[in-house]
Amino acid sequence: MNIRDKTKLNLRGRPVATNREARRQSILKSAYEAFVELGFAKTTTAEVARRARTSKRAIYEVFESKTALFAAVIFENQHLIIDLPRADDELLPIEETLFRIFRLDIVAKEAKAREAILRLLTRESILFPELTDYLYEHEVIRSRELLIEWLELEHSRSRLSVNDPELYAGMLMDIVFGALLPHRPSHSEFDYLKRVEDIKQRLCIIITTML
């Protein structure tokens, strides 16, 4: 096959791949909206298909089960939860790096999406422990592990003194996510910004124990 023939083949194949990815993204978007609004139990593949304007068969061609679809939704939005791993050559001040790791300066729209994902994970992990097990077994959720690896790396660089990275990773996540999920949802931007500033101050306090 000459180069011209290969080019024709690639051009013919490209729309198929593009359409498949577009369909997958449409399903994920619709599933995200359904899971956030209805929860895992009340969300059916029929409901996702209706929202995505596709068929249940089309969903099962991409995702083997509703659990796999849920896992894909979480994986697709994990960047909203934690921004790791970091670039190998990143040498920002520790506090600035932590602010970026926990994405404390994202815009309001992304902040709301993050809160929705965190609430979804928190709610479903209580109702369906086996669902959480599935997410961990398939390494969909690795926020804690990635944070431990980052702490170990900074310790090896002598930028931090962390003898128990697992303990510190747990404390950091409790500080951030505990404050990002208030008991009562707030639609006030002022309240959100105040929470973020409080988180930053708390992170700065714990950083002093790691220097």
Automatic annotation (TrEMBL):
Domain of life: Bacteria
DNA-binding region(s) in UniProt: 44-63
Coiled-coil region(s): none
InterPro entries: Homeodomain-like_sf, HTH-type_TetR-like_transc_reg, HTH_TetR, TetR_C_Proteobacteria
Domain HTH tetR-type: 21-81
Molecular function terms from GO: DNA-binding transcription factor activity; transcription cis-regulatory region binding
Keyword set, alphabetical order: DNA-binding
This protein's name: TetR family transcriptional regulator
